Amino acid sequence: MGGESLVAFDLDSFENVTQRLMAAESEREICEIAISEIPSVFDVALGALWLYDSDASELQLAASTERADEVFDWSVTYRPGNSLSWEAFEQDEVRTYSELDAERSQYNADSPVSSEIILPIDDYGVINIGSLAAVEFDDETIRLARMYATHVQAALQKAEREHDLRVQRDRMERFIGVVSHDLRNPIHVVKGRLELARQTGELSHLEDAEAGVARMETLIDDLLTLAREGYTVDERTVVALGTLAERTWGMARTGDATLTVEASIPVFGDETRLKQVFENLFRNAADHAGEDVTVWVGPIVEDDTAETGTVGEQDTDRVTGFYVADDGPGLSPDKLADVLSVDRLSTGDSGLGLSIVAQITDAHGWDLSVTESRAGGARFEITDGTKPVSPFHSW
Q1: Which pTM was predicted?
Q2: Histidine kinase domain: which residues (predicted)?
Q3: Which of 21, 89, 120, 225 has a CA that sits 20 to 30 A from residue 266's CA?
């Protein structure tokens, strides 16, 4: 290692960068500040930051210094087993290399980088600081580099919290709007029918008033569910799809509706939350298709979307989810985005029920979609998206 120069560290530049990082509002801005100032803080030309994409299971390049862009004219992506950077990220371990030519697990064995320090930033990703010439990262420089990465991590955490707060605030504003809208309609019905009953003496008007009260009770139940329990997923257990649907059916106040469980599979999830999913879907079917609606529940088998048949042991590996379908009027395409979005609360006759379904399935990490059933009604599909769901595996 003899002959390598020590990497310099400029404390004034470091303090300036720290202030700018904590004032930054977005992830992109934080990455650009952290990397663009590496030459002034460490007096080396090469620097880059990779952010972890959990869906793709890879580290994706988010920012790099001008000199790094000149040296590398291609985007670098790190994946399990393909680089020193991935090893450092996976093991949450700072790595320093003064002679990278001797390291055979580099991403690029012909890389012109001679010396490098790799700094994990928790679950967010890694920062690489390097030099084309051989340099030495002494203990003090490594300590300061760790501190640099810690400040970048703190800025990313702050930006993430502020983003989550903005999302929650926006959801609350939409929530208040939906509640005021949905409660106002049945209140008007009750007031109008009571006034007609007083004027005419016809007690039949009270039936419509009673329906308005029932609608308000449903909305209030949904509000209490949201306020008390939120959309979090607690303890997951394996439950039978058929048993879960049948136990929930009686709680959904579905009148003369008919439930048919076409096949059952094991599902790994929060049983309490799943009951809320089924109750709201059953109630939605009855509200839109009438009290004599027919509802089918069953597994979704890969390459087979029919709402019928059984699932044998040989088919369980092909199960990708489950569905709840009905023979009602279905949902028009222009309403689908509103009723299923986890970032929006549905308005109109759907109330909060389908929004709660969307939130709970999203909390499980599952996908929710809706299409047309074989009877022309609505078919709600809940799938894992990337893994088989028979059962939904613990992850």
Answers
A1: 0.55
A2: 178-388
A3: 225
